[in-house]
Structures are given as C-alpha cells and as structure tokens.
Amino acid sequence: MDINNVAELSVDFEELLELKKEKILLNPIGTLPKYSQQNIDLGLPIAIMDYQYDLVKDYRRSKKINSDRNYEQEQISNFSPSKWIYPQNFAKDDNIYKQVYHDLVVNYGYYVQQGSKYGCDFVLYEDDPDTCHSSFLLNIIDHTEKKQTLTVRELVLWQRVSNKVNKKTIIAFLAQEEKKDQGDKNLQIKYVCLDNFISDLKVIK
Fold first, then answer.
1. Is 36 inside any structural domain?
2. 204 domain-assigned
3. Which one of 38, 40, 105, 107 is at 20 to 30 Å from 96 when CA atoms are compared?
4. Where is the tRNA intron endonuclease catalytic domain (predicted)?
5. Is the preceding omega at residue 87 within 30 degrees of 0, hence cis?
C-alpha cells in the first residue's frame, strides 16, 4: 500500500462494517496488540484510499441526511476526533484509478481491494471476500503518464502471476468513444482480458 494514496485514517470500525455492506472495502493497517507477530489480521487505524474517498463521503452524507432532519441548518466538518485527513492525497476527478474503482463498485457490483499482494492495481471479488476467492487481477494503464505502452515482458509477467494463483488478468484503460448521434468523443473505460476482448466483465467466468 502506498501511503501517499491514503486520503484518511479512521478509527470508526462500525463504519468499516457498514461500508463493506455497500461493497466498499477499507484497509485496516494497525497491529493487533495480542497478535503483534503477524500481519494477516490487522486492526485500527483504517486507511481510506484516495480513489475510495468520494464513495465514502457520499455514504456519510446520505447517512447524515437520513439521521438528522436539521441537516441543512448544520455545518458538516470533514474532521472529527475519529479521523485524520490528508487532503494533499485526494485524487483528482480525472484520476483513472478513481474512475475505474467507481465503475467496478457502482456499475459492476464488484468488491474491489488494492492489489499490492499480487503486484497489480486492484483485486476483484464477485462476492464477499470473507466467503470466496478473488476472480480477477486488474492492472490500470494511466493515460496521463508518459509511459503509455505495454511491453511483452509485462504482459507475460501479469499472465504468469494470474495463472499461478488461478485468476484472470484484466487491463483497464481510457479510450475515446465517438457518439454517432452527437459526433462527440468521450473517454470511456475499457477492459481487456489477456485471453479475449470484453465489453462486460460479467461475461468472464
């Protein structure tokens, strides 16, 4: 995990459980006092990544509105004793990691976890990670970086890792898509499996 991508540290464990029901997986990073010699089961604080932060804020806002009839008369602060905010780490609106994460969680309904364990960007679960194994390893090609091309070496490495752990490798990137009616070109998220091109992740089993 890159600490420069952490937008907030929280100690609200109840929120972690509630967000998991919304398929938003946060990242406990603290050591458990009674089990300090292991790094599999972790505890507080909880890291909220920059690409997750918008969805977390939307959840908090909706919860606040539902629980407070006088919401419009109050000023909501981003800071409380249970949080520590890192605004310099907030992802920009055009950040491809934020766009892909939002698309996978909101539009496709996947559980998405950061993928440093497998050397990829995201790991995708079709169901609760506590009850099933992940299905896909996803790598993102960032169009804002100077290096926009893939080497054969990278493709082979990604494929070998995914085969070794019995998963499929997916590459996500932004591509221009022209609307026939309007003639406008918009950047759309595309997904490519190393086995075949797909327009819908759900067709890969």
1. yes
2. no
3. 40
4. 99-179
5. no
Same domain, 190 and 124: yes
pLDDT tens per residue across span 158-184: 989 999 999 999 999 988 876 666 555
Q: Using CA atoms, how far apart are residues 166 and 96, in angstroms rounded to an integer?
A: 27
Tokens representing 138?
């996803």
Residue 205 has pLDDT above 50, yes or no: no
Asked if residue 114 lies in contact with residue 124, where contact means CB atoms within 8 angstroms, the answer is no
Other CB atoms within 10 A of residue 73 CB: 7
Angle between helices 13-21 and 53-67 (to 10 degrees): 100
User: Model confidence over 129-139: pLDDT tens digits?
Assistant: 999 999 999 99
Residues 36, 190: Cα–Cα separation, whole Å: 42
* Number of domains forming the structure of the chain: 2
Strands 6-10 and 83-85: antiparallel
Question: Strands 27-30, 43-49: parallel, antiparallel or unpaired by DSSP?
Answer: antiparallel
